[in-house]
Write a structure and sequence with these properties.
The protein is mainly β. It contains 3 helices and 31 strands.
Length: 532
Amino acid sequence: MIQRRDLLTWGSMAGASSLAPRRANAQLCAHEPLAFPGSPRTTPWLSTLPIPPLIQPVQRLDPAPVPGNHQRYSEFEPKLFYDVNVQAITHRFHPELPPTPIWGYGGMVPGPTFHARYGEPVLVRFRNSLPASHVGFGLPSIATHLHNGHTASESDGYPSDFADPGHFRDHHYANRPAGDDPAEIMSTLWYHDHREDFTAQNVVRGLTGFYLLFDDLDTGNERDTNPKAFRLPAGAYDVPLIFHDRAFNADGTMAYDVFNTAGILGDRYTVNNAIQPRFEVARRKYRFRLLNGGPSRFYHFALSNGERMVQLSNDGNMLPHPIAVSGVTLSPAERADVIIDFSNARRGDQIFLLNQLEQTAGEGPTGHLMLPGDPVLRFDVASNDTADPSRIPETLRPLPRIDMREVKQERLWKFDYLNSNWLVNGKLFDTARIDAMIKRGSAEVWTFRNEGTTWSHPIHIHFEEFQILEFNGRRPGPGDVNRARKDTVRLGPNDEIKIFMRFRDFLGRYVMHCHNVLHEDHSMMIRWDVVP
């Protein structure tokens, strides 16, 4: 077990070379050497953790939205309107680095956090104010995806539904569970750019943010008098954390290899776009919403004091019951809500969130844990206050039933790499080609097969959650965190995963793709349509 004195020694180091992610930038490209030198040295723990502010609604949008552009608009008429200006800004990732050009929703990174409620539809206007004359990596053309909202196709952020500079696109979010089934309610979503061929570059440029959903159980009020309310940590004790690993040029600007098609690993960990920040905590429970924002690194998070976390969710979906875990593994786009209880700590203690997962660029995890691990975030216990009205309920949300009699078709999707191309069923993505036509109201069984022996792929399906039936021939057991609804699944070398999913409520085109977004951009993606 890691010793606290070792972490305190690390925390006092002026340089950061020992704190850089290990194996960072190793084999950055599939066939090319590293395209840039290591990032400038930075002293860890100088920055306080930035917390994205909550977005505020506007009274009206000008011009007014066009209801006819949206499915079931009058049925789910928006109660709130939001205007998000996507613009170029400068951002300082660390006090020892200069401000660097970046793009932000609402002029900030991460973008502002949405607090939405089930039963309260909203309409969000994303206005593209990026400079059309932009030079450098990233394309100033946006297609915003609410990952993984149960959203009509025209508001889903389909990769070719983009808005160029000077234009906007309206997104209608009904904020209703799939099939009106309370068991399908979600909690932690996020929004990010999904522009065809440029998702990775635009996400690295800064286009990510949180979208949190609440309802009559997960109310966002830890003092809720409703006996059915979860009363999870809320307010200042409900903290969203998005993780990116980044690389920087010698002048402090962000580095990106546009010729890389395999997977980029940065040599600096960021949390909410700050390099190795610190966060003051009280001696009580906190809810942390962990999100791997990519573009390519997998993580295994654990605490330096050996304490367990309590995992509440897998992706945006609550588990049937909380599960105590020693660590949480997240591939790009995966999320996990966890409770960390600091009540047994003492004022002045410093506890580190560690990444213990070793990987090579593009290929994914090696299968080995780095012990003790790389410190990513430092928790400073700054108060002796133990008052804590929050709780961890014994039960959360039941899983939706699986009825195999609903299955109308089974499909096999094979993920492979051939001649420098990322393929699904031997094909490159073509937005004009429909790879599956699925009848609304039906269910299907899909099998994902990794034909590769070294590559790992986080496979994400838009629009609907799924349940894992088999993982390499075995069903998830009751204590398995993968016995849950998911929207992204880790497909390791030679893995075969079978899932069940339904297709409800809306019509139109959607995508499935690898969420190592360099693979997506180089064309590991398929189009599927929901039809009447």
